[in-house]
Amino acid sequence: MNQEIFLSIMATGFVVAFFHAAIPTHWLPFVLTARAHGWSKTKTLAVTAIAGAGHAVFTAILGVLVVWLGINVDRWTGSVFPWIAGGLLIAFGFFYLIKQARGGGHDHRHTPPGAHAHHENNDRAHDHPHSHKHAHAHTHANNYPPEHDRARPDQDAARTAAPTTRVSDRAAILGLLALLTFSPCEGFLPVYLSGIRNGWTGFVLLSFVLAAATLAGMMLFTTLTMFGLDRFKLQALEKYESAILSVLLCGLGAAIIVLET
């Protein structure tokens, strides 16, 4: 494959993966969960990076199947393959265009793990003074010393709060990892297809592009949001993701047909 064409494929792949990662469903759940659990910025970014890596790895695993099939088809079809690859890319483009016309942008709806736990913790914190008052009145009615009455609730809270927080954090982190890991960047799979002529070397290079763009998008927008620089509106990007993918894939498919045949 012409080197200039492959560089164009890599650039298109970066744009596809970056804009996919810029969609709020790929970073907003991390910010909301971090706020609910009181995570530091470092911990939030670390969880985001791990989830982004899992997202890219799972997409690459699916890409292995695409590349394997493509290489075998290329052996059978020879000079006809650019028409097949380009035609499939344009077909994918029209699929996303139809999806957009039907109102189907990015249809994921991620609920931040731990949000309910946060509200439950707030409810417990709200209810605790009430129950403490009853305990306080009861203990004084039974002539408990004031020192003993003051110590017991604090000791009980120390025994119960720490394990609950650890379990809650663990569940939230696992939920976020699963959220992204098993939600592949499906728009990148046609990009793998377009680089078939470069074999497994092309697959590895495109996988690095996928990982770099995914992590860059997720980390950037997570950081901006944590620092309060979230005034920009990315809902429009989420709404028109399918149209953007349609334009990119159709253009890439046309380029392969024109320049490789």
Describe this structure in words.
The protein is mostly helical and 261 residues long. The protein has one domain (3-137, 146-260). It is 80% helix and 0% strand. The protein is built from 10 helices and no strands. It has helices spanning 3-21, 28-37, 41-77, 81-101, 115-141, 146-181, 189-194, 199-226, 235-239, 241-260. α1 packs parallel to α8 and α3 (41-77) runs parallel beside α6. It starts with a helix and ends with a helix.
Which features does this protein show?
261 residues; 80% helix; mainly alpha
Q: Tell me the span between the first and last alpha carbons.
A: 11 Å
How many individual β-strands?
0
The succession of helices and strands, N to C, reads HHHHHHHHHH
> Structural class given helices, strands, pairing?
mainly alpha
Task: Assign a percent range to the helix content.
Answer: over 70%
- In percent, how much strand structure appears in the residues? under 5%
In short:
This protein is an all-alpha fold. It is 80% helix and 0% strand.
Spell out the blueprint of helices and strands.
Layout: H1 3-21, H2 28-37, H3 41-77, H4 81-101, H5 115-141, H6 146-181, H7 189-194, H8 199-226, H9 235-239, H10 241-260
